[in-house]
Design brief:
TIM Barrel; alpha/beta; five-stranded parallel beta sheet; 16% strand; 19 strands; 33% helix
């Protein structure tokens, strides 16, 4: 998500837009979920009680929605769920469903009655136990209760206790209550093959969130429960103790993390890749206000990806405040098609620019941030390449389909960070490259993608990795190399590899958009006064910015540097002309 840009605040507040549109032709009724659509509105009052409510609701929703897309959760403080419900019920796949609001959590439980086998009670003295409880709830069809919620609802709902985790984890095994909890769960659930091999959930536990009623990584748990995923929250660093467990022996979190990854690799037997949905907790594992650490947020993100990649894992980096994944994921979906532009011929004395509208590569920006920029009235005025990870079709297929069906002739899509999932391709073991290729061919094919505009890694791509990408990304490969381990990593030379053009993505423009003047200066600084001997092609990354702002930036660049004769080009012609130039001049 952040990649190697400035530290971004965890959640961007996006105002619900009064977006009106003609949304394709109403799809055929979803026969899997053609009955009533029940909605439940969370209170989100910013208290521990509202946190506990969201936890119970997420479990019930995940269990109910396993059979059919039945329950949709809304919020009094977050307007995005209502935005998507309005969109898909007015002309999309939920059109025609009778929407029935549920009056209270008792009514929601009544829908789940007969499907819920009991309750799992977590231990507030060990915040990690709530993640363990979520794992148990997914495997055992349970609902997760705090002790207070158990007191209130256990008898009322006539539920047996599947597992009471209070007092179970003392630190006797590892010297850390937190790590004792996860290692027990590894042995009892992941190691016994009871959890999903395709999903891991890196969800922040209640350590610093419950008291504030911060439910960002609670409302996501319908997804974990539905998929019976293993849920955890650990640091990728081995040289310091995390904020939530300062007395642990440094590296204990990392040892446990590796045990999870090793067991997952064993369970999948190299036959499928695993998505790690979620993000590390800023305040626990990196240097942010309130926590002194030797590691900044961006290196912590990169270290996480560096760690998981050899285990055939890729990250869906941010998933906070992503509602209703258990429902959206069941939308009817068929392979999508992109438009291809007419071929244009390169002209002399022109400087060609292509813009990657970057970082819609994980659930939160796709679900929550992109609608604001997508509704910009100037979208379509210039060609733009939107970075969307194709593997998100498993989570939000209806949302991706909406973007495809409402794109302009100047909107294009490419895989963002790094392919079908955020990982370091150079870290994939050679014996698993066939699996890597198969995984990417599947998702690139579903979204008609042939470009990889932002492959993130610690060094230039190896010959094996370039060979792999030619199998699913033949029209272009652009990389962003940051060597946080100081091992001599470098960007590749401009080249064409077995027909695939290879270049470096310019990241100097990837920080926060403060002004068009600043951004145009950043672009200008990347373009030399004289391009003699250098390809006149510049591929810029711009993050979470509106088309209007990009257009203003380009206008200023043209005004400041008229000698460049700048032309903003669609990605297909851009990479094709670049390829022809390299072949001609080499």
């Amino acid at each position: 998500m952040m990649k190697n840009v400035i530290f971004k605040l965890p959640v961007l507040l996006v105002v619900l837009l009064g977006l009106t549109f003609s949304f394709c032709v109403a799809e055929k009724k979803n026969t899997k979920g053609g009955g009533p659509l029940y909605t439940y509105t969370l209170s989100q009052s910013g208290t521990a009680e509202s946190y506990d409510e969201a936890m119970a609701v997420a479990c019930l929703q995940g269990i109910i929605n396993r059979e059919a897309p039945t329950v949709y959760v809304l919020s009094k403080t977050n307007s995005r769920p209502a935005y998507w419900l309005e969109l898909f019920s007015s002309g999309g796949w939920l059109h025609g469903r009778d929407i029935k609001p549920l009056p209270n959590i008792d009514a929601l439980f009544a829908l789940a009655k007969g499907k819920v086998r009991g309750a799992v009670i977590w231990d507030p003295a060990v915040p990690a136990s709530m993640n363990v409880a979520t794992t148990i709830a997914g495997v055992g069809d349970g609902v997760v209760f705090s002790p207070e919620f158990a007191e209130k609802y256990l008898k009322k709902w006539d539920l047996k206790v599947i597992k009471d985790l209070r007092g179970m984890f003392t630190g006797q095994e590892t010297g850390s209550k937190k790590n004792d909890a996860y290692r027990w769960a590894i042995r009892e659930y992941l190691g016994k093959g009871l959890c999903s091999g395709h999903w891991l959930c890196l969800y922040e536990d209640p350590f610093s969130t419950r008291a504030k009623g911060n439910v960002g990584y609670v409302v996501t748990r319908d997804w974990a429960v539905k998929n019976r995923s293993f849920v955890y929250d650990l640091s990728p660093w081995g040289d310091e103790a995390p904020q939530d467990d300062p007395d642990q022996k440094p590296g204990t979190d990392l040892e446990t993390y590796k045990l999870i990854l090793e067991e997952m690799l064993k369970q999948t037997a190299g036959k499928q890749m695993t998505e790690v949905a979620g993000f590390f907790a800023f305040s626990k594992y990196s240097n942010v206000p309130g926590h002194k650490s030797s590691h900044d947020p961006v290196p912590t993100e990169w270290e996480t990806v560096y760690l998981i990649s050899p285990y055939n894992c890729y990250q869906n980096t941010v998933a906070s405040n992503c509602y209703n994944q258990s429902l959206h994921s069941q939308a009817p979906f068929a392979p999508l098609k992109q438009r291809r532009p007419k071929t244009v011929q390169k002209q002399e004395n022109k400087t060609y620019i292509c813009i990657l509208m970057a970082d819609y590569d994980s659930s939160t920006p796709l679900y929550d941030f992109l609608p604001k920029h997508w509704s910009d009235t100037q979208r379509g005025a210039i060609p733009l390449l939107w970075g969307i990870n194709p593997n998100l079709a498993e989570t939000y297929p209806d949302i991706i389909k909406y973007y495809y069906e409402t794109r302009s002739p100047n909107d294009y899509f490419g895989a963002d960070a790094s392919a079908a999932g955020y990982m370091n391709p150079n870290r994939v073991k050679k014996e698993y490259l066939p699996l890597f290729i198969e995984h990417n061919q599947k998702f690139y094919g579903q979204l008609d993608m042939t470009l990889s505009p932002m492959v993130l890694d610690w060094d230039e791509p190896s010959a094996d990795i370039k060979d792999a990408f030619t199998k699913f990304s033949p029209d272009g490969f652009a990389t962003n190399v940051i060597d946080f381990h100081h091992t001599g990593g470098k960007n590749p030379k401009p080249q064409v590899w077995k027909g695939m053009p290879v270049m470096t993505l310019i990241n100097s423009t990837g920080g926060r958009f403060n002004s068009a003047d600043e951004k145009s200066n950043q672009m200008s600084a990347s373009i030399p006064s004289k391009s003699i001997g250098k390809p006149p092609f510049y591929f810029f990354r711009i993050v979470w910015t509106s088309p209007s702002q990009v257009i203003e930036t380009i206008k200023l660049l043209k005004k400041k540097r008229p000698e460049l004769n700048v032309e903003v080009t669609d990605p297909y012609n851009f990479f094709r002309m670049y390829k022809e130039y390299i072949l001609q001049h080499n």
